[in-house]
Amino acid sequence: MADQKALLSALVAAGLATAQPLQAETYFEISGKVAAELRGFTQDAQFADQDHDSNLSLIAEPEFYWEWNDGIDSLTFTPYLRVDENDSERTHGDIRELSWVHVGEDWELRTGIRKVFWGVTEFQHLVDVINQTDGVDDFDGEDKLGQPMINLSLVRDWGIVDLFVLPGFRERTFAGREGRLRGGLIVDTDAAEYESSAEEKHIDTAVRWSHTVGDFDLGAYWFHGTNRDPELQVRTQGGNTVLVPRYVQMDQIGFDLQATLDSWLWKVETIWRDTETEDYFAAQGGFEYTFYGIQESAADLGVLLEYGWDERGEDASASIQNDLFFGGRITLNDAASTEMLAGVGYDLDYDSQSLIVEASRRYGDNWKVSVDGRFFSADDPADLASAFDKDDHIQLTVERYF
Prior knowledge:
The protein has one helix and 22 strands. The protein has one helix spanning 2-13, and strands at 21-23, 26-41, 54-68, 73-84, 92-103, 107-114, 147-156, 159-167, 193-194, 203-213, 216-226, 231-237, 240-247, 249-261, 264-274, 279-291, 300-310, 322-331, 339-347, 353-363, 367-377, 393-401.
């Protein structure tokens, strides 16, 4: 019997057998994806050492899943690896998830490395604070590193309460000297500084309440710990001028709301952040209205409008401080899950613009093809977006799921 189990595990790992129970109470499954990502840049780079107009990356992200005790206990392991053609800093590995989940009658305990997402708006996720941004995967801040945590989730009639202990901090990743979509100065991640004497070993904490009341989904939280957004400070090292990330302590209170009213989705996220040097409010809000069955077809068209505001104005260290966003989302609702999102951002302070286009379609049961376009127009050097002014690109991604 033991030899049969070992043989089945080896076949599943090799992709030669589908996942099935190893014994009556234990289940094992392997899934995930491999992908190839090709970027083509439409302009010559504006900084030294960025001497390429195309870039190829290969990605592997398998997922190993175990379940036992009739689903009461489960273990998930999701490693991640990217190999990049040009940027050695973009070639990296991570553990996106390695966590054990135990389900009680009205509670769950989640322990290990995990990803937790909070937020409702489309163009910026202010309230998403638990995981660190994987800055080399993409510039939009939506790719995250795995975060060590202990998370106790309590289910009550008046809402869900999540308690977090976060023992260990992850530093942000940045593009290297050969990478594109970066600023003019290289970020020296090896010289990172911390306000806390515990540095990356500081234990962060958070508590979040979420609840659905009729058509309204509500969330509120308090976070205490190391700010995931580093302060980039200019330093001279070995005759070179570089940026050194400094991670300070912060308290942050966040609130998010989404109201589903017929064809309308109203969304808002707001935060108050307090650090050693500043405290401020920021907010992102807007709506999405969906036209269902356009032209008597199965397709839906969503129209989006959002506004992002930061109390610090032009002194903000964030690129969104007084920005309008307009967008449209087309979903064909076909067997191939074809969809497209296009959005335009306009900075009211710096008169800069950006355009994003994202389209994807499945082919068969295992393949997905995506085409993304990102285009920038930012002439004012005071605008943080000006670092990307010459980095307009079109990206083709082919993914194989298993």
